[in-house]
Amino acid sequence: xxxxxxxxxxxxxxxxxxxxxxxxxxxxxxxxxxxxxxxxxxxxxxxxxxxxxxxxxxxxxxxxxxxxxxxxxxxxxxxxxxxxxxxxxxxxxxxxxxxxxxxxxxxxxxxxxxxxxxxxxxxxxxxxxxxxxxxxxxxxxxxxxxxxxxxxxxxxxxxxxxxxxxxxxxxxxxxxxxxxxxxxxxxxxxxxxxxxxxxxxxxxxxxxxxxxxxxxxxxxxxxxxxxxxxxxxxxxxxxxxxxxxxxxxxxxxxxxxxxxxxxxxxxxxxxxxxxxxxxxxxxxxxxxxxxxxxxxxxxxxxxxxxxxxxxxxxxxxxxxxxxxxxxxxxxxxxxxxxxxxxxxxxxxxxxxxxxxxxxxxxxxxxxxxxxxxxxxxxxxxxxxxxxxxxxxxxxxxxxxxxxxx
Length: 405
Prior knowledge:
The protein is built from six helices and 30 strands. It is 15% helix and 38% strand. Helix 1 crosses helix 2 (39-51). By secondary structure, the protein is mainly β. The chain has helices at 17-31, 39-51, 151-154, 198-205, 302-308, 391-402, and strands spanning 60-63, 67-68, 71-77, 85-91, 97-103, 108-114, 121-130, 138-145, 158-163, 176-180, 186-189, 191-192, 195-196, 210-215, 225-226, 235-238, 241-242, 244-245, 248-249, 251-254, 259-267, 271-279, 286-287, 314-315, 318-319, 325-333, 336-341, 344-349, 357-362, 374-383.
């Protein structure tokens, strides 16, 4: 039987109409790989077509551009189309669909569709038109959807980048690798809609706890952070439920959990470290693990240790509040090291020119007093270049995503 999606245009005056329509119908059905089962079926479909003639010629739809974003405009074009009702559907590569409807106000109708729920890639627009002239053709157009821009798409060049959101749309790897406590099975967990796929994570955990064995580096430098010792792996699922901090997934430091970078970062140049975290106790997200207590790895920097407590806990004797989510950052250009949190400068220490930041641990802390991180982490990004002109933009991007302040 003929469905609503069948398009039929006679291309002229039908003489006789039955013959022209019948031939057109049979051709279309056979072109689609079908058959006309019976004359009775054909008569039924012919009755529908005869009472619902095709829309006028010149009916098209088109996206406003070849590449569209999450809020995308398309146009319906039809001379004399004022008053025609339209229904549209936009479908992505995973068959997820966005639909809408309206009435044309003139020869050209501009429509804005919300594509934020669709995945990036090719999307297909289909519009069906009805009105005084009857049912018209279903017309289509395609575009490339780029609805999401990662932080590193805009602010590239990170030395290492760890996050539970997608930071770079060219990155095709997983977010983390996790271990299930019940049987020690492991599985990579990728991104879904540009965030950690918590549904797959919780299905894998199957009602038990799960721990992070690898936090993958999205910078392109392959500096993954791993931990093979079960007792030192930070936790990501408790009794089948993923840890969530302010509506976003998080990794929990257990007080002993730590992840070791595959390659130690030794940074003597300019530096910017952006973190998204929350402390349950005054402990750290980054540490040196060199048997000494200094984060800025130089024996002459004892005064920095006393004031910074490995940079994130205290800075100029100002403590981060517990159980509070922060965008907490360390920044160095030349000889000055400063700390900002939630977009506000917290303090500056001078005299660090030429000193080396040595980083080889995530979710670890202040070794000389036995600290490791107790709290939650969602993101750690390290640049070893001057980010002075990008600093505000980076902090804004993080806050826009995590809604911290």
